[in-house]
Amino acid sequence: MSDVFTLKFEYKGHPHIVEVTTAHQQFKTVYKVVIQEHEITFEPDEEGYVRAVSSKPLHDHLHSLDVGLLHHVAELIIQHIR
C-alpha cells in the first residue's frame, strides 16, 4: 500500500511543489519523488535519516540536479514523518 503527501517549499528563491509517494516495502518504507525531471527514491539509513537514490545515474540526465535541493527535500520528508 502506498500513501501520497505533498511538500510545498521555497528553495533558493524558487517555489517547489513535490508530490511524495510512500511505498511500504518488506523491511522499510521508501519515499519516491520526481525533482526537476529526476526520479529519486529516499530510503532510510542506519542513522535515522533518509538518503537519496536516483533511478538512473545523475550524469545520464540532461539537466543537473542541485544536491542541496536533495538535502532540503530529505529534511522535509524527515520532518513530515516524525
UniProtKB/TrEMBL annotation:
This is Uncharacterized protein. It comes from Chitinophaga eiseniae. The lineage of its organism: Bacteria, Pseudomonadati, Bacteroidota, Chitinophagia, Chitinophagales.
